[in-house]
Amino acid sequence: MREGKTKKVEEFGSEVVLHFKDDITAGDGAKHDVIKNKGSICCEITGRTMKYLEEKGIYTMFLEYLPPNKLRARKLSMIPLEVIVRFKKAGSFIRRYGGNDGEDLPAPLVEFTYKNDELHDPLMCVEHLEILNITTKKIAYVIMEEARKTATLLKEFFDQKGLELWDIKFEYGLDEEGKVCLGDEISPDTMRLRRSGQIFDKDVYRKDLGNPMEKYEAVLELCRSIDL
Ligand code: C5P
Asked: Quick check: is 69 in a domain?
């Protein structure tokens, strides 16, 4: 069994079982806590949102939700990238390029960062991906379009629920046939969700603004409208 900061992965032939842990981390692992039920909440949100995306034609790893905190999923060869789609300015975008929290971007922006805590997930251009053998330009452009489409579908979902999706991080892998597939997780850990100044995501934890689970549970309730 392989173990990361927030998940364990168990392999079974062409499938895996992902175990979502109760760990929460920020700042490349510098801040770390364990919060009861966090794993099950993020797991169920991932299962339901990926089910919604599958129904809209997006290829995801999701096969089955195994309550309370496991997912049966397609085995993927993961590409070590964090693919961020931004609708509004926030977080590292503002630190790099300036602007104000929540300011609209004129179009959805896709960014690639290299998944490497020691290097602090550096931002990468498509040229870096090919030269550093992370993936090919062709696959990078497929991922870019998939990420934009997927984020837009999730934005529409949360809009209907009265929440604004400011940005989101995806991770992709290749299936056994080499097809790009959405993996990892979709949860308040991996996106910024806001409603009139209220924060419903990991920024509650990053900025020490109280118990993040109350907000995560509220997001889960909204996602329960998606059948599993
Ligand atoms: O920090 P930054 O502004 O780059 O984050 C953009 C989005 O990506 C946020 O929704 C954040 O939660 C997510 N993210 C993530 N994992 C990281 C870095 C960012 O899920 N390692």
From this structure: yes
* pLDDT tens sequence across 122-141: 999 999 999 999 999 999 99
- Same domain for 70 and 16: yes
Instruction: Tell me the CATH number at 18.
Output: 3.30.200.20
Chain mean pLDDT for the chain: 97
| Pair 153, 176 in one domain | yes
Whole-model pTM: value is 0.97
The CA 13 to ligand 1 mean position distance, Å, reads 31
Query: Is residue 29 predicted with pLDDT exceeding 90?
Result: no
Can you tell me the mean pLDDT for 43-55?
98
Q: Where does 117-174 show beta strands of DSSP type E?
A: 123-124, 164-174
Task: Pick the atom of ligand 1 nearest to 166's CA.
Answer: 10
Question: Which ligand 1 atom sits closest to the C-alpha of 121?
Answer: 21
Ligand 1 pocket, residue 38 CB under 6 Å: no
- Per-residue model confidence (pLDDT) at position 4: 94
Average pLDDT of span 99-110: 98
Specify the number of domains making up the chain.
2
Is the same domain home to 34 and 108?
no
Task: Ligand 1 pocket test: pick from 6, 7, 84, 201 the residue with the most ligand atoms within 8 Å of its Cβ.
Answer: 84
Burial class (CB in 10 A: 0-12, 13-18, 19+), 99: middle
User: Each residue of 199-224: b (16+ CB within 10 Å) or e?
Assistant: bbbbbbbbeeeeebbebbebbbebbe
Give the residue numbers spanning the domain of 201: 77-211
